[in-house]
């Protein structure tokens, strides 16, 4: 059974999702793409046979040919589009964050619960990355003992032009919050945000360090550096009682010249997490067909945003901020 997919958002992320659906995921057909900028929607639809352009995401959701929707539009639009998908009874994969605020996440979560069935998956694709999957498997097998510490770094070569100071946490750090919860199976109970010496004169408080406390006693430090210049670099080291696991990275080419040896880094997330995005889409489509849902659900989206709000509050106050541990 082929599923008709509509993608909302034809920017870099949406365009990449659209091409992955059309070219690398079996059993799916990209039938529609929308963007307020008609030229961007038409550029993608012109590449892919049978894909129609829209300028209104709500019209795309209402189209009968669209059986499931992938949302990759700006963060502040997510709630409205997800609620429209729920109203139409259509499965939706929403890029992170589910919403920029916990109030928005709760509105979505309550609307889904009122339907009595799960239709939402949140795009925390690291859960599908083979290196993270292997790290979690090692921890669950218990061969290294229990987890004690996690060291994480999230570095971009250059922050996107639309990034606000808050988005380093609400848009980027939410990946770290979700993967910490997923790896350990424990909730985050407190966060402390620390400013470092700032790079340049830009508006971002960059880099940042977050100290994250887990309910099971695990501590994690998270570095966020949105303008690291040298490339896109994601690092995680899991420290256990009897050993450590360092996150593997796709093997880049090794360059040798003029007496030096160096490895290259990808310029953005596509070079690092291409497989994870494809595997995420395959798992989502399987759930659309009726198989057991996989990936992060709406409550996971809410949990990550709640931690992000606490981190922003800590950044402003300079104090440790606690987070309620009740399951949303």
UniProtKB/TrEMBL annotation:
It holds the Pfam family GFO_IDH_MocA_C3. GO terms for molecular function: nucleotide binding. Gene3D superfamilies: Dihydrodipicolinate Reductase, domain 2 (3.30.360.10), NAD(P)-binding Rossmann-like Domain (3.40.50.720). Residues 132-245 form the GFO/IDH/MocA-like oxidoreductase domain. Residues 4-123 form the Gfo/Idh/MocA-like oxidoreductase N-terminal domain. SUPFAM superfamilies: Glyceraldehyde-3-phosphate dehydrogenase-like, C-terminal domain, NAD(P)-binding Rossmann-fold domains. PANTHER family: INOSITOL 2-DEHYDROGENASE (PTHR43593:SF1), PTHR43593. This is Inositol 2-dehydrogenase. It comes from Kumtagia ephedrae.
């Amino acid at each position: 059974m082929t599923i008709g997919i509509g993608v909302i958002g034809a920017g870099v992320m949406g365009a990449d999702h659209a091409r992955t659906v059309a070219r690398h995921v079996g059993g799916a057909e990209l039938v529609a793409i929308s963007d307020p900028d008609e030229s961007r929607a038409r550029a993608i639809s012109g590449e892919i046979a049978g894909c129609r352009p829209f300028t209104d995401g709500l019209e795309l959701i209402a189209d009968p040919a669209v059986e499931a929707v992938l949302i990759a539009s700006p963060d502040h639009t997510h709630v409205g589009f997800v609620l429209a998908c729920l109203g139409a009874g259509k499965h939706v994969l929403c890029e992170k964050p589910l919403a920029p605020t916990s109030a928005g996440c709760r509105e979505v979560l309550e609307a889904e619960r009122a339907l009595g069935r799960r239709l939402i998956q949140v795009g925390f694709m690291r859960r599908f990355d083979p290196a993270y999957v292997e790290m979690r498997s090692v921890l669950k097998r218990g061969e290294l003992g229990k987890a004690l510490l996690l060291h994480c770094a999230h570095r971009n070569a250059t922050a996107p032009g639309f990034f606000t100071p808050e988005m380093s946490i609400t848009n980027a750090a939410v990946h770290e919050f979700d993967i910490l919860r997923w790896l350990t199976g424990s909730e985050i109970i407190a966060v402390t945000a620390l400013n470092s010496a700032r790079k340049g004169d830009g508006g971002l408080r960059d880099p940042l360090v977050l100290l994250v406390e887990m309910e099971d006693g695990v501590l994690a430090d998270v570095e966020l550096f949105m303008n690291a210049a040298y490339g896109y670099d994601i690092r995680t080291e899991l420290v256990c009682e009897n050993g450590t696991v360092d996150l593997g990275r796709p093997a880049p080419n090794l360059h040798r010249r003029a007496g030096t040896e160096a490895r290259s880094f990808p310029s953005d997330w596509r070079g690092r997490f291409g497989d994870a995005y494809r595997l995420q889409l395959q798992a989502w489509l399987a759930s659309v067909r009726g198989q057991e849902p996989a990936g992060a659900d709406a409550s996971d989206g809410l949990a990550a945003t709640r931690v992000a709000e606490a981190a922003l509050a800590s950044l402003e106050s300079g104090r440790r901020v606690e987070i309620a541990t009740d399951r949303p």
